[in-house]
Amino acid sequence: MISVEHISKYFNRETILHDISFSLEKGEILGLLGPNGAGKTTLMRIINQIISADKGYVSYGGNLIKEKHLLNIGYLPEERGLYQSMSVEKQILFLGKLRGLSKTEAKNQMEYWLKRFGIQAWRKKRIEELSKGMAQKVQFICTVLHEPDVLILDEPFSGFDPINIELIRKELLNFKKKGKSIIISTHNMNNVEEICDRAILINEGEMILEGTVPELRQQFKEGLYKISFTGNMISFANSLWAGYEIVDKEVHSEETFTVYLKMRQGNKINDLLNAVIDQVSITGIEEVLPSMENVFVKSINAQNEILSE
Amino acid sequence: MFFGPLAVLGLIYLFLSTTTSTNKDWKILMMDKKEVFDGKLASDPSANLKFDFINAFVDYEDFAYNEKFQDYDISVWINEKIVSNKKVIISYREQPPENIQRKIIYLVERRMEEIMVDQFTDLSVSKFREIKQSLNFSFKDVYDPKNEKSTSASWVGFSFGTLIIIFVFMFGMTILRSVSREKSNRIIEVLLSSVNARQLLTGKVLGVGFSALVQFAAWVIIIGTGLYLFRLTLFPDMFSAGFVADEVAKTDFSYELANQSPFVELIYNQIQYMNMLIFFALFFIGGYLFYGSFFAMIGASMGSESDGQQFIIPLTLLLFSAILSGYYVVYYPSTTLSTWLGFIPFTSPMVMMVDLSNGFADGSAWKLILSIIILFASAFLMMIIAGRIYKNGILRFNHRLKLRMLIKWTKK
């Protein structure tokens, strides 16, 4: 759908982005991750043609991106902004028409979304009368009103309470089902794990990771396993000899435990099971993959160490 | 949009009501004990002044309280030795307005003049007045003697030019406020994801211009219709040449001069309003587009409110210098500097309005055409430069705005 090829951006001799390349497929949700100041917003602005890249290009549907393609893109900037003294209704209609909708189309879409979010009562209110969360709902509606094929959302969950986060999350999954492509930039790693198909990680203008969420988690796994059992903790520990390292444990009751351990000396799950099966009654066993938050922190720290050397 | 012009119409109505109330009838008692004036005045007084002569003196108390004199508003005492002491005392119940005072003074002086001429000279009154009349000077350009220029006409052009500068400033500030508001409430990023910066800037300038023109047209139509209806119904003499002449007589002009009324002649007969209005519109549009780009640039580049103030001041000074240029051209219309000021886009809207009111000599109308072309070409160029600065500055916040930053942004 969208392809970013070797994008670089410099400002006052500083490198904001360096040689970023990735693609966004149809019906895919791509997480754009990175610490503050990494260049995520700059990249999103380049894709939206708000600013131009110093090197590289963006293509849409196999062609160099042009102004006409912007009508198929819905952009939600990180810095939310609406005309404060305009009413909700006028705001939505104005931005809908700006995106190429006729007055009737914009009105129909507005009715649909106001009903969907349960905010019909606000239509005559001015934006300045709304709370931050309410205004962000309105801005989200303005972003999706024209049914774009691509959504580029910078921190879409920011400023929302958990109920509204869930509401937005469901809408994004709905869009995905309809074949829309979405790029979201977020610091909320739970959301990345829950909804993103792929993620790319940018730090200091460089792309340091790219892959599906399971791939990235696999890439950073530490061989940690979780085993739950009922029985005697001491017997369990004694049955493990040098081939295992207990990292942590959780005590659920006198005889119910969950233990986190790492394999050593090339031992596998079967070896672990064989070692403990006669001592305790096992209720569950699984490999513990790092969370996306762990992946994020580890990658950034690793790169920062390299840069500081 | 409607409240403003209706409020102004209301004020005009109040003003005219109070003005026309001064056209009440005044009865004046002329106390001429020695019959110096012989019971008559030099010329027929206005219809609202009625003079009655008596050959007696009536003191203040008598005039104030005696029933016989209650019908009179004013008494004028022509003392026996008026020829030598030149003293006239006028008493009133209610202070008459300035124009009534001047009329009484004029009529009494004219009669006194007749008496003095008759008493001390052998001349007829008309001969005396002919001799007394001041010389009539006129300045003519030796290369174009038929084209007699008058600073009065130039001031009309100056007024039109000043209107252009005032409107440019007002609408320019509207552009600046609108751009900086869109920047500060961050909606600009949403807008830029749909239209490019140059389109946004052009749309902003044209949109503010059109809305201002619509407001201006609404004011002109509502006030014009209101004044026309006033003239038809409530104040039929309003704005006739005679009315204007009469009102002019209320100023420092002498009553006689007001009768000749060069000002009225200028306003009603000399100024070619159709020409002036057409070129007023052209120079206003060109000047607005030219200066509007500057205002948009500053609005887009401001890092903070106070930051922008430092750049608004030089822009305001430029507009003020345009007004000063107009003032210069009124008095020195034919200098080389005046010619150049007519082509420089910063000053041409003002200077050309002054030149238009003076009229162009045969074969020199090309200056007007060239000035318009330069103005619109400059406006177009400024919109391009402003577009670049707008694009580079609109998404930058909390920076210290410096001139070299602006120059750098024009190059990108």
Tell me about this structure.
The complex is a heterodimer of chains A (about 300) and B (about 400). By secondary structure, chain A is an alpha/beta fold. In chain A, the strands form 3 sheets. Chain A has a 6-stranded mixed β-sheet with strand order 6-7-8-3-9-10, sandwiched between helices. Chain A has a 4-stranded antiparallel β-sheet with strand order 2-1-4-5, covered by helices on one side. A 4-stranded antiparallel β-sheet of chain A has the order 12-13-11-14, covered by helices on one side. Chain A is globular and about 75 Å long. In chain A, helix 2 crosses helix 3. The model of chain A has no long low-confidence stretch (mean pLDDT about 90). Chain A contains 10 helices and 14 strands. Chain B is mainly α and about 400 residues long. Chain B has 2 domains: about 110 residues, Periplasmic binding protein-like II (D-Maltodextrin-Binding Protein, domain 2, 3-Layer(aba) Sandwich), CATH 3.40.190.10; about 260 residues, no CATH class. Chain B contains 17 helices and 4 strands. In chain B, strands 2-1-3-4 form a 4-stranded mixed β-sheet, with no helix packed on it. At the A-B interface, loops of A face helix 7 of B.
